[in-house]
Specification:
This protein is α+β, with helices and mostly antiparallel strands. About 30% of the residues lie in helices and about 30% in strands. Helix 6 links the parallel strand 11 and strand 12. Bound molecules: N-(5'-phosphopyridoxyl)-D-alanine (PDD). The site of N-(5'-phosphopyridoxyl)-D-alanine has 15 residues, from helix 6 and strand 13.
């Protein structure tokens, strides 16, 4: 596998990242995951805008991220993934410095890493839907920053795996926030509800596309927290994310959603989404 590491394209085996890297020591870095559908990096500009925002919020000095667009393209080409479904991973950390909590000197170069991997689009999950569990949202209050500090997300997703379900969705102050790596939506009648864009969720790129589709198809979408009690009794539930696309949810904890099959609003959103991505 050819990867990108600090301005160079190398075989992955040749990369050596310092144990003093602040990404390793403090989780002091940010990342993006971009879906490559054959011939298009989906919403690349939106990912770069969000990456810039994450860097700014953490005061990591990277400058203009627009070069990463060609890095992503090159990674697809150098790994012969042009005709595949793939994901591109980009990560930037605050660089290498002797361990001290406060920032290193301004001139410390950041560490930049990028890779591209083939991705299996799970059509069965997209078609049949998944079960999910609800878990307390134990994360910090800057979930809007796409930081590599993903311990609560990893713990939550592991719990989902052990419960043999597809995702865990977090609950903060009794309200559904988002999944471990997805945004969450509940449908009541023909109206879609999702947690407001705020410091308690990541502003998902796929979430934004869901809003675009709703606007275009005149489906009402409201940014309003839904309590965990109401969520369990929603007519439909779905999650969105770069790798999850729009995945129907058919069971929340032990509660079957609707009649146990993906509902009509979710289906129509999926259909519109598939049109956009050309599937
Ligand atoms: N996760 N919420 C969280 C906490 C996420 O980590 C993600 C993405 C999303 C969905 O955002 P988007 O639609 O932009 O992918 C919501 C990526 C895919 C990951 O960590 O693998």
């Amino acid at each position: 596998m050819i990867v990108y590491y600090n301005d160079r394209y190398l075989s992955k085996d040749e990369v050596s990242i310092s144990p003093d890297d602040r990404g390793f020591v403090f989780g002091d870095g940010v990342y993006e995951v971009i879906y490559y559908y054959p011939r298009q990096l989906f919403e690349m500009d939106s990912h770069l805008t969000r990456l810039t925002r994450s860097l700014t919020e953490l005061r990591i000095n990277y400058g203009d991220v627009s070069n990463l667009k060609s890095v992503a393209k090159n990674l697809i080409e150098k790994n012969n993934l042009q005709d595949n479904h793939a994901t591109v991973y980009l990560q930037i950390t605050r660089g290498v410095a002797k361990r001290a909590h406060a920032f290193p000197p301004k001139a410390t170069p950041v560490t930049v890493y990028g890779s591209a991997s083939p991705f299996h689009r799970d059509e069965q999950k997209l078609h049949n839907g998944i079960k999910i569990i609800l878990l307390p949202d134990i994360r910090w209050s800057r979930c809007d920053i796409k930081s590599v500090c993903l311990l609560p997300n990893a713990l939550g997703n592991q719990q989902a795996k052990e419960a043999q379900v597809g995702e865990a969705i977090f609950v903060r102050d009794g309200m559904i926030t988002e999944g471990t790596h997805t945004n969450a939506f509940a449908v009541f009648g023909n109206t879609v509800y999702t947690y407001p864009k705020s410091n308690y969720i990541l502003a998902g790129i796929t979430r934004k596309v869901v809003f675009d589709i709703c606007r275009q198809d005149r489906i009402e979408i409201i940014e309003e927290p839904v309590s965990q009690e109401r969520f369990r009794f929603a007519d439909e539930v779905f999650i969105s994310g770069t790798t999850a696309e729009i995945t129907p949810v058919i069971q929340v904890d032990n509660h079957t959603i609707g009649n146990g099959n993906p509902g009509p609003v979710t289906r129509s959103l999926q259909k519109a989404f598939e049109k956009i991505i050309g599937q």
